[in-house]
Design a protein that fits this description.
Blueprint lengths: L1 H21 L3 H10 L1 H24 L15 E3 L19 E3 L2
Antiparallel strand pairs: 1-2
């Protein structure tokens, strides 16, 4: 009988501990962020400097050797509608697209 009561008390204590462990305090999270602020700033600055260096190297290399070539292709597609069909042919299909390259 005494053992059953002890087991019941331990179970209640464990349940209370688990409920306390499930809670997350925003103040604790803020404290961790403030504690690690120099690491966060350092990693961010390192990444920014690395990106700038990669972009400068990419611009200095010739386009055929660059891993990020500075060449762009612009294209636009236009669908030209006739007044009679208003975009659909007699069979219900879309009219062919005319390609216009700028």
């Amino acid at each position: 009988m005494l053992q059953d009561q002890e087991i019941k008390n331990q179970t209640e204590d464990n349940t209370a501990l688990k409920e306390e462990e499930d809670e997350i305090s925003l103040i604790d999270l803020l404290a961790v962020l403030l504690k690690r602020k120099w690491m966060i700033i350092g990693i961010t600055l390192f990444a920014a400097i690395a990106v700038v260096i990669v972009c400068i190297i990419s611009l200095k290399l010739p386009p055929e050797d660059s891993f990020m070539p500075n060449e762009y292709t612009i294209s636009a597609n236009m669908l030209i509608n006739d007044d009679a069909s208003s975009g659909l042919s007699a069979s219900g299909r879309l009219l062919p697209q005319h390609q216009c390259l700028v």
